[in-house]
């Protein structure tokens, strides 16, 4: 269930943000998400060891770290505010 929600959430963000390589502070402008960057760059003919190849791993690792930090924080909040029932 959790993975289904994550995949739907990623697709909603990717569709809402668009596929334009534009970085802006204004949330009303379209920009490229990290996931859509990985899909767009990885066409199957990326040379092993190139800068593009290494950037795919860097972006994937950054997404992993962000997800890990959010999960640790949410577990902390849940454990702090959980009510104990008899």
Structure write-up:
This protein is an all-alpha fold and 86 residues long. The chain has one domain (2-81). The radius of gyration is 17 Å and the shape is extended. 64% of the residues lie in helices and 0% in strands. The relative contact order is 0.08. It contains 3 helices and no strands. It has helices at 2-17, 34-41, 51-81. The mean pLDDT is 76. Helix 2 (34-41) runs antiparallel to helix 3 (51-81).
Strand content: under 5%
Rounded average pLDDT: 76
Shape: extended
What's the end-to-end separation, in Å? 28 Å
Which properties best describe this structure?
86 residues; 3 helices; 64% helix
In short:
This protein has 86 residues and is mostly helical.
Q: In terms of topology, how is this protein built?
A:
Layout: H1 2-17, H2 34-41, H3 51-81
